[in-house]
Prior knowledge:
Layout: H1 3-18, H2 23-29, H3 34-41, H4 52-61, E1 110-120, E2 128-141, H5 142-148, E3 155-159, E4 174-178, E5 188-194, E6 197-206, E7 210-214, E8 226-228, E9 236-246
Antiparallel strand pairs: 1-2, 3-4, 4-9, 5-6, 5-9, 6-7, 7-8
Helix pairs in contact: 2-3
Amino acid sequence: MDIYDIRRTNLQSLLDDRFKGKKARLADAIDRQSSYVSRCLSTGTHRKRIGEDFARHVEKALGLANGWLDHQSGVNEPRATYGRPASDNELTFTENMDPWDRSEPIADDEVELPLYREVALSGGGGRTQVVENNGAALRFKRSTLRSAGVTKESAACAFVEGESMEPILPNGASVGVDTADKQIRDGKMYAIDHDGLLRVKFLYRLPGGGLRIRSANPDKVEHPDEDLGENWPEKVNIIGKVFWYSVLLH
């Protein structure tokens, strides 16, 4: 087996083990087109050899040790290191959000996005307001923003609380929000500020200018549709359309 076959075999293993066989996800992670990845993995006449520069690029993009792709499994195999080392103030996510430490410099392929959250109002009797918390941010892959057509300036993140969006978004899931996209398109998912509550819901327009707020499981008694009249903008502020989400499995 020559070096090109070894690299192709290792890339295929990464695709199967880390990306569940989905070439589009691997392509996004290494900032290449899916067709390019397919050629690299092909064994046919139109296959693309994985050269030195591209092999090192893949390793860097995926957090692998230098030279990882060049070694056959079990034969002087370097240790794979995914993401960053854990720390006391670690935040752990799947997919495009990795464990990180605020003391580490931001990587070239990352951006820091603001995090929306609820805060209690002083003397508000339990009331809250939704704020863009500039004191906390999440690191996000630039390639994901490019693929979604979202600019860094309009991107933000939020967390989902509760069970109303299960099984799509379990409690604790994180979402990426395009704050520049607030136009309601029926059945799309949006982050909203609903009278001080940060919510992620499906939105629908209603006749007469009304708004329907829908959970992922509206048939349950505790999560019915919420239909608001034409004055809904007085209570609901659309933060932006959800373009990405990640679920942390326990």
